[in-house]
Amino acid sequence: MTQALRENIKDLYPTRSAEDESWSERHDPVVWSDWNAAAPLTRAQADAFEREGYIMLENIFSSGELAILRNELDAIRGGGKRLTPDSVITEPGSDEIRTVFQLEKQSEVFDRLARDARIAGVIRFLLGDELYIHQSRLNYKPGFTGKEFYWHSDFETWHAEDGMPRMRAISASILLTDNDALNGPLMLMPGSHRTFVRCAGATPDDNHKTSLKKQEVGVPSNETLTRMAEKHGINYAAGKAGTVILFDCNTLHGSNGNITPFPRSNAFFVFNAWSNRPQRPFAAAKRRPEFLGARAPEAPIAIERGGLA
Asked: What is the spatial distance between Cα 66 and Cα 178, in angstroms, rounded to a whole number?
């Protein structure tokens, strides 16, 4: 698809207008490929992703691979890696690291993880297209002080502020530490991916400068969240280190703060379909910086098989 064509795609998901918040049905498929015996996941897994908007993959990595990932995590957080200054976001009210963006560009280990067939191969099947990394990050939630990530649909932001046209993207959260019910695991509303919440209010200039610490624009109202939770319920995605959570770009999700002594760290990759590359933002004056959303990826990622070692 040429840039000229992509710049004129119809907006199927208008949001952030002067009108009140409203709901609309999803216009896009959830699973873009027909299941077959050669698929990289079972029919039950594909059906679950279609129905719930997320699945969990367990026992993906060996103990040696997990050690490699944790060593890289410690090196990045401990200052052993030179990081692009703009890519580091701190916790509200402190200098403690909350998020590090552009993992695949700052770490060979995480670049290889992003291209691993055990993750990217599954997502390529679900999206029915070649892939690129729209965004990547390390999410830290330190013990005692780790703040919450409020309820939101990623797609609403990516559509409004990055120019992502369609719901053809999937996030992969790789647990680098144990996530349990107490230390702020990912929470999701299963089935919410089939409803798009059109948020009210215009996008402020440079909204990302505050939203990365605390998101307040482009989030559903408390009334909508209550109705969605009553309709769909809330699940939490706890798992041992090495568990992979794949969730649709429009699934409502968030996480609580962490007041336990036990930190929580996850690597996070957003895989977008190559045919769904961004155009102009649909509800913002300009695109967010490159570290938040790849503007013009050069080519699809080269997916690799074999271990990380």
From this structure: 12
Could you list the residue range(s) of the whole structural domain that residue 213 is in? 25-276
Q: What is the SS3 assignment for 132?
A: strand
Tell me if 243 is assigned to some domain.
Answer: yes
Q: How far apart are CA 163 and CA 160, in angstroms?
A: 6
Domain membership of residue 37 (yes or no) is yes
Cβ contact 72:107 at 8 Å? yes
Specify the 3-state DSSP secondary structure of 42.
Answer: coil
DSSP3 helix / strand / coil % (the chain, rounded to 5): 25, 25, 50
pLDDT 10s digit of each residue in the chain, 309 long? 444 344 568 899 999 987 789 999 999 999 999 999 999 999 999 999 999 999 999 999 999 999 999 999 988 887 767 788 778 887 677 777 778 999 999 999 999 999 999 999 999 999 999 999 999 999 888 888 888 889 999 999 999 999 999 999 999 999 999 999 999 999 999 999 999 999 998 898 877 765 555 567 789 999 999 999 999 999 999 999 999 999 999 999 999 999 999 989 999 999 999 999 999 999 999 999 999 999 999 999 999 999 997
Residue 303 lies in a domain: no
211 touches 301 (CB < 8 A): no
Q: What residues pair up with 101 in beta bridges, in sequence order? A: 137
Cα 235 to Cα 255: distance, rounded to the nearest angstrom: 11
Helix (H, G, I), strand (E, B) or coil at 178: coil
